[in-house]
Amino acid sequence: MSAQINKPVCVIVGVGPGNGAAFARKFVSNGYQVALLARSTGFTQGLAEELGDTRSYACDVTDAAVVEQTFKAIQSELGDIDVLIYNPGAGVWANVEDITLDDFEQSWRINAFGALLVSKQVIPAMKDKKKGNIVFIGATASRRGGIQTAAFAPAKAAQRSLAESMARHLGPKGIHVSHVIIDGVVDTPTTREMMLGKPDNYFIKPDDIADEVMHLTEQKTSTWSSEIEVRPFGEVW
């Protein structure tokens, strides 16, 4: 696919069959060229072929050299990036006694360190144009640590704080930074299989999350949201 010069560019980091694919479908349907980033292209290549106006890139967000190389390729092939969605959410579920130091560090590198790496790739061009959107997909764990989230919660809390710091610094420069707290279980075949018998209202629909993310990128500058929560009405909170 050749770059469509007149189309805006959206980069989605962390694309799988749930939220990432829903974001891709939403932004393509709204006239964007979309770059799909994941550690491997096994899923994203097929999605790119299905959607059109889309390219698939293999990218390890914990590797600074790979991130820089990937974003240079995106800029060369698609153009300047208008929207960045950071969606990786890998976690290891264990308590503080069972968690390993490697597990803790890897969770931080994926959720916080990687978020900083990719953000640094898009900020300069967005500043030059005095506009752009950076959206972090977060989790309830960023607000409180559960027994089994000894690695995941600190990493998501770091991501949330990074997003807030960036929003304060970059907002006056025209860049809208927002953080979406997903409070609930995302509806995927895997989660349905794990939670047999749960009613539909227990799950968050990826397409509905994508609608909210699109809305964030379209907000007027006088009413920017720096953080929103999304949850199904059946969720206990």
How would you explain this protein's 3D organization?
The protein is α/β, with parallel strands linked by helices and 237 residues long. 42% of the residues lie in helices and 19% in strands. The protein is built from seven helices and nine strands, in the order E-H-E-H-E-H-E-H-E-H-E-E-H-E-H-E. It has helices at 19-29, 44-51, 64-77, 101-129, 152-170, 189-194, 206-217; strands spanning 9-13, 33-38, 54-58, 83-86, 132-139, 175-182, 185-186, 203-204, 227-230. It has a seven-stranded parallel sheet with strand order 3-2-1-4-5-6-9, sandwiched between helices. Strands 7-8 form a two-stranded parallel ribbon. The mean pLDDT is 93.
The fraction of residues assigned to DSSP E strands is 15-25%
Radius of gyration: 17 Å
Report how far apart the termini are. 45 Å
Largest sheet: 7 strands, parallel
Number of helices: 7
Based on helices, strands and strand pairing, what is the structural class?
alpha/beta
